[in-house]
Design brief:
Elements: H1 3-28, H2 36-46, H3 50-72, H4 75-82, H5 84-95, H6 103-121
Helix pairs in contact: 1-3, 1-5, 5-6
């Protein structure tokens, strides 16, 4: 596998995992307090949520793939490329979760994109 393919898997799994976790936690309900009783109640619902379980599994796949990529390439190359997940996640949050993304956040996405372009060119 090439490094870019590995990074693609990382970005796809990490972003999809974040979207699934967000959707699952919105269904589970808000964590209103850090008291043990509240965490136990919400945590019990969360571990039975298909979206939370899917999100967790995708995060594990992303992490294992990240380890494989780091075994093949320098951290200074791989890590910045994985920032593409910020772009994908922001787009997915806007269009799949229907979140409002402010112009300032879009500007951040553009800046991250430029950074990825610079790293890729090296």
């Amino acid at each position: 596998m090439t490094t870019l393919l590995l990074v693609g898997v990382i970005v796809l799994c990490f972003s999809s995992g974040d979207i699934a976790l967000t959707r699952g936690m919105k269904q589970v309900g808000e964590v209103s307090s850090l008291r043990l009783a509240v965490l136990d109640q919400v945590g019990g619902r969360a571990i039975r949520s298909p979206f939370v379980l899917l999100g967790g599994a995708l995060q594990v796949v992303a992490f294992v793939t990240y380890l494989v990529a780091l075994s093949r390439r320098d951290l200074s190359y791989v890590f910045p490329l994985t920032a593409a997940s910020d772009i994908v996640t922001t787009l997915a949050a806007r269009f799949l979760l229907h979140e409002q993304v402010t112009p300032t956040r879009w500007a951040g996405v553009v800046i991250v994109s430029l950074g990825i372009a610079l790293i890729s060119a090296s």
